[in-house]
């Protein structure tokens, strides 16, 4: 296997010939091993709360359901089944919630109101969501606090919460919403048109130090767990290393800030940030390093990234070997 990385390479090789790699027995072993490690580690400078907020900006949801005069609040992260170990790491870190399966998806859900009030809200109040999901979170929080108000009867709670939800749905306030996380940047630009990309670009390029404080490495790693791809692609009869990251149209300010932080010079296309430039690839690799020279991606993206990184340093320009590694990565992405 070219000795790319030992266990990781073996895992991908095994996956190529056995589609049942993630049977429950094997998953349980992975979960048990990783949970033991999580209990006593500080993640080597990875801030798990910031990471969780990044993961939520990427793949999390805050939902409110009203059924038979009962108000149900849920915080949920849904992933593909092959990333189940990542949800168990989150559950083990927070010590609350449940994990459920449906077809090829796995969901981590918290629907206990006390857990939401005492554990989830303090995290997301201190470490703000950077995307337009901040808008949904604030509505969720407002409704949850109404539901927790003992001075209101159930009917009043339902009416108040329904009014908030309906008002939001009718007015679509979040269409042009920018998280208040960015306030310290845009407060100094009174007349800026947030829909004017050139003006937005200039504003962000002039505030790179502030962006570094707002968009931490821990947040970005959490976001990249599900929204990024580390691939090998064929271009001009060569196999080259390629990176991309996706973003919602509403969150241009977030996407362009990622572009600046990762030093990607190629223009964004349809809200996809991508590069195959060697300098950019090396910059991304260095950015993701912590003090012990390891990345802190925690899920399946870690396996993908590690093979991608090591093959870059060991087999760059070796088309024959990179083609085989490309086949392995394509099988598991």
TrEMBL record:
<keyword id="KW-0496">Mitochondrion</keyword>
<dbReference type="GO" id="GO:0005739">
    <property type="term" value="C:mitochondrion"/>
</dbReference>
<dbReference type="GO" id="GO:0004519">
    <property type="term" value="F:endonuclease activity"/>
</dbReference>
<dbReference type="InterPro" id="IPR051289">
    <property type="entry name" value="LAGLIDADG_Endonuclease"/>
</dbReference>
<dbReference type="Pfam" id="PF00961">
    <property type="entry name" value="LAGLIDADG_1"/>
</dbReference>
<dbReference type="InterPro" id="IPR027434">
    <property type="entry name" value="Homing_endonucl"/>
</dbReference>
<feature type="domain" description="Homing endonuclease LAGLIDADG">
    <location>
        <begin position="52"/>
        <end position="143"/>
    </location>
</feature>
<keyword id="KW-0378">Hydrolase</keyword>
<dbReference type="InterPro" id="IPR004860">
    <property type="entry name" value="LAGLIDADG_dom"/>
</dbReference>
<keyword id="KW-0540">Nuclease</keyword>
<keyword id="KW-0255">Endonuclease</keyword>
<protein>
    <submittedName>
        <fullName>Putative intron-encoded endonuclease aI2</fullName>
    </submittedName>
</protein>
């Amino acid at each position: 296997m070219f000795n790319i990385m030992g266990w990781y390479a073996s895992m991908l090789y095994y996956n190529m010939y056995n589609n049942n790699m993630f049977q429950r027995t094997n998953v349980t072993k992975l979960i048990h091993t990783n949970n033991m490690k999580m209990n006593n580690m500080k993640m080597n400078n990875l801030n798990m709360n910031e990471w969780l907020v990044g993961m939520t900006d990427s793949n999390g949801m805050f939902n409110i359901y009203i059924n038979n005069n009962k108000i149900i609040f849920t915080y949920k992260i849904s992933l593909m089944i092959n990333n189940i170990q990542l949800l168990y790491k989150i559950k083990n870190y927070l010590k609350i919630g449940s994990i459920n399966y449906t077809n090829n998806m796995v969901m981590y859900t918290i629907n206990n109101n006390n857990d939401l009030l005492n554990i989830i809200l303090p995290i997301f109040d201190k470490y703000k969501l950077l995307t337009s999901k901040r808008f949904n979170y604030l509505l969720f929080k407002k409704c949850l606090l109404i539901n927790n108000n003992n001075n209101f009867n159930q009917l009043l709670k339902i009416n108040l919460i329904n009014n908030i939800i309906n008002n939001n749905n009718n007015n679509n306030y979040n269409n042009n919403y920018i998280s208040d996380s960015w306030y310290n940047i845009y407060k100094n630009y009174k007349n800026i048109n947030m829909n004017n990309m050139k003006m937005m670009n200039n504003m962000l390029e002039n505030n790179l130090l502030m962006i570094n404080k707002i968009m931490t490495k821990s947040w970005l790693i959490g976001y990249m767990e599900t929204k990024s791809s580390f691939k090998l692609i064929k271009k001009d009869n060569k196999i080259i290393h390629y990176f991309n990251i996706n973003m919602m149209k509403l969150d241009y300010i977030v996407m362009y800030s990622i572009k600046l932080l990762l030093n990607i010079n190629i223009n964004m296309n349809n809200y996809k940030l991508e590069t195959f430039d060697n300098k950019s690839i090396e910059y991304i690799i260095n950015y993701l390093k912590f003090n012990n020279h390891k990345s802190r991606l925690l899920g399946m993206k870690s396996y993908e990234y590690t093979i991608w990184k090591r093959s870059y340093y060991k087999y760059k320009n070796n088309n024959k070997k990179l083609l085989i590694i490309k086949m392995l990565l394509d099988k598991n992405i």
